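Can you give me the bound-state structure? Components:
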Amino acid sequence: MLEDYFRQYALIGIFAAVAVLVPTGMLLASYLASLARIRPTRPRPPNWRESPPPYLRTYESGLQPIGGPWRRINIRYYAFGLLFVIFDIETIFLYPWAVEYGVLSARFGIFAFIEALIFIGILAIGWAYAWRKRAMEWT
Amino acid sequence: MGAHDLWLLSPQLAMAALACTALVVDLATGRSKLVLWLSLIGLVIPAALSIALWAANPADTLVFFGAASVDRFSLFFTLLFTGVAAAVIVSAEKYASRFQEQRGEFVGLILASTTGMMLLASANELITIYVSLELTALPVAALLAFLREDRSAEAGMKFLILSGVSSALLLYGLVFIFGFTGTTRLDEIFARIGDLQASGGFDSTVPFGSYGLLLGIALAISGFAFKLAAAPFQMWVPDAYEGGPTPVVAFLSVASKAAGFAVVLRILYSAFGSPELAVEWSALFAVLAVVTMTLGNLMALPQKNVKRLLGYSTISQAGFMLIGLAAVSANTSAGSLVAGPQSVVFYLAGYAFTNLAVFLGVIAITNRTNDNTIAGFAGMGRRAPVTALLLAIGLISLLGLPPTVGFMSKIFVFNAAVNSGLAWLALAGVLNSVISAYYYLRVIRAMYMEAPTSDERITLDPSLGVATGIAAFGAVLFGVAPWFLLRAAEIAVRSLSGVAGS
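Here's the bound-state model for the whole set.
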């Protein structure tokens, strides 16, 4: 039984080794290719930090990045983050409820429906609270 | 599942509904006084439902497939939490002016945390225990930071981070217990451990019979020790008590601790109540008890701030309660099976009255003086005679002198310890009571023997006065005639599975 137990950890070990080797292998292969002059190099012009050539720019979903990555983030995003969590949790719990609703209603009748309504109601109070406290207004 | 479950869980549901109502009324009207009095009246509903359920005493106490068990043990605590919540809300009537715009949320968060505690006292399943514990702790973290000062923010932050750490420890422990037994329900864990013991699956050379269970129980107890303010997990207490708003600190000190002990009692007896295991955790709690009360007492001696002093006092009181956890009958053949847990439950109820009298008295005085140092209480015997008297009664009860409930609590706890063969533990408790006399009497001395710093009289607000009076009256009443409360504690403990059964 103990051997079985360690064999399971061996599987995790193999998985971890593959997970580390694949990306490092790719980077290493790319580096070796540049040494062998198969891959084009990316020269850094003297002022590359101020006006980077396109191939050195941060890739941001195909958009031009605005500002540096180290600027401060406005504290108001925190409230938005919390609001997002409200709806996120709602989705997480309502989705399985909706999928299994047939089974639930067959077993528990109207309870299954009312319980979800109560759950939504509690989240709605949180949402109404945020609205009332002007968490959704930017200024 | 059905109407029966809802009826059993009705005190908790009513409290949750009340918390939501308080928030909605505050949002709709913005009148914090209205919210305060409305929720105070509303608290009658969960209290009445708890009493009705206690009287009805249904045979089937399991709710929602065994997730919770609404027995008389949980109803005892449900009623206790409702009372504490009422006292805390009353005490904040004047104090809440310091909360600026958040006055309505104060009530809502207290009620939300109380809901968590009520669920915690009835939780019969590991995941329910964890979720209720989070519901208990998170509102308190927000409430501690309500004063918008550096100290208050520090208190809230410390509490939040340390309760996160303790939750992680607890979860890890619960995972081991689940992994070992294959179930999250406490009664099933009990049965599973019994099967393993019968089939020889336990190794008698290892504590708790198995390393998995040892790690699980040790980690879970460490997680709960944060909530109980037991050593060596007591570091957050003084800072949180000093910085946080006093009504919140009173709530934390009384209700949160009672909830922690309720869930620990239930887990220990319902899941790990077999005699072989009880001997092991009894020894663990005996050591924790000595360390906790000695550490709390010694650290309290040099304190100059009353709130900080009460923080250390809370730690040492937790130590006394842990003696009752260590007193299990498995150590001896003669001892009564219920004496240990019964003494803890009695202690918690008495402590609620006592500590509320102290905290409400402190709130009544500091509302006007805004001075939390012991020196600031000088001459209060003359400036605020009634408040000082009620506060002194509370302090004497904390110290454990007759005719107060603190004396009776300690008698019962020590008695349970001696009867289960832990006389040395009772002796350590008595010595610690003597040490604690120094700092409790120092506050009384300041109030009665020192010259007042000003001649201004401090009048007692009617609502706060009534609440403080009830608390102090309870502390004296149950000290003179403890039989009613003792009987209630016994009935409560006997309904706990694992105590009466074996």
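A couple of observations. Residues 273-502 of chain B form one domain. The radius of gyration of chain B is 22 Å.
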